[in-house]
Amino acid sequence: MKTVVFDKPILTGDVAVPGDKSISHRAVMLGSIAEGETKITGFLDGEDCLRTIDIFRQLGVSIEREGTNVTVDSPGLQGWQLPSGDLYAGNSGTTARLMLGILAGSNIESVLTGDESLSKRPMNRVTLPLSTMGASIAGGPDGNLLPLTIAGGHLTAIDYKMPVASAQVKSAILFAGLNAEGTTTISEKTVSRDHTERMLMQFGASIQVDGFKVSVKGGNVLHGTEVIVPGDISSAAFFMSAAAMIKGSSVTFKNVGLNPTRTGILDVLRNMGARVEILEEKNGVGEPFGTVKVSYGELRATEISGELIPRLIDELPIIALLATQAEGTTVIKDAEELRVKETDRIAAVTSELKKIGADIEATDDGMIIHGPTALTGGTLTSYGDHRVGMMAAIAALIASEPIQIEDPECIAISYPGFFEDLDKLAQPANANG
Fold first, then answer.
1. Whole-model pTM?
2. Which domains does the chain have, with CATH numbers?
3. What residues are annotated to the active site?
4. Could you give the CA distance from residue 80 to residue 61 in angstroms, rounded to a whole number?
C-alpha cells in the first residue's frame, strides 16, 4: 500500500522516461534469433523485459546487461540449446505471445508458462494461426491458456487476415514466418504498431510493407546489429496527461519515441485542447524519436475510436482520467482489446475512477466519461496492472484527499522510477507563482 498526496501541485520541468517496453522486448528477441553480437542501448530494465532475457539465457544465448545497456551474443536460432526447465514469462503477455511464434520455428521442444494472471489471458489468437502454419502447440483448453508445450519444427507460410488489430499477434506470425517455407503475408484492417517490421529490416530480414499488408520471406539468416531504444511514449503519456489537465503545468519529454503507430496520445491531447509541441525529431535507422513539450489547456471532450485505438491502446486508462477533467462527454469505443490486457482494463478503470467520484460508465468495447468532475480521495487497487497503478497515482495530483494505492509495486513492470519522477515534476503551485 502506498499513500500519494499532493497539495495543489503543478507539473514543471523535464523528464527522460524509461526505454520503450515493446521495443526492448523485440530487441532482445531478434538479437537472440540473429547470429552474432547485438548491442542495445536504452533498454527497459523492468520486470517484463527481464523475463524475456531470462528465457533466452535458458536457451543458451549469452546476454550481458549493465543497467540500460545490453549485449546479446547468439549462435542463431538453430544453435539454441534445450532448456533445463520451463520457460517462465511471468506477467508478460508480450513475452508469451511473441515467444510462441519464435519457438514454433525453432528446433527444440519447450514448455512456456506464466504467473496466475498471465495464465488466464487468451493465447489462441496466436496459437490458431500458428497451427495453420504447422506449429505443434499443446495445452488446454484448445491451446488457449498457459502452460503450453511447443515442439519446434517445419512450418509453411500462410496468408493471414487479422480479425482485430494486434501487434502481438502480427509479430508472433512474422517471427514464425522467418523460419517457414515460402512467404508469409499478414493483412490488417487497421495498422497496428510496427516495431517488429522496422526491427526486422534492421536485422536484415527480407520483409516488405505495403499499406495494410506485411510480408516476410522464410529462410533468412539474421545478423546482429545495434538497436537504440527510445523513451516509451506509453509511459510518458501519464505525465503528459497530468501536465495537460493541471493549470500552469508544462513538462518536456526528452528522447521519447515518435513512431506514428504509437503517437495517438499526442493527437488526443491536441484534440482535447492541450498544447503539444514537437521541439526536435530524429529519424534515423529504426525508430523515430525526439523532444516533446506538453502544457496545460482548457480541456474539451472527444471521441476515441476506430483506427485511433491501436495507436493508443495502452494509454486509454490515463485518457479516461483525463476525460474526467474535460468539458462534455468523452466516448471511447472499439477498444474491446482492453478486456484482455493485464486485467480487464475497462472494468478496472471504471471501477476505480467511480470510487473517487468520476462520472464514468463501462460499455462492451469502451467507456463513456462525463466531465468535468471533482475527484475525492480513497483507496484504489492496481489489480497488479502497471497502467492502472500509474493512473491511480496521477489521480492523486487532482484529488481533494490522499489516494492510497494497493500493490503499487507492479508499476515497476514498465516504469521502475515512476514515483521518483513524479515527485521531481510535481511542485507546489505557490512555489512557481
1. 0.92
2. 2-19+230-432 (3.65.10.10), 21-228 (3.65.10.10)
3. 314
4. 7
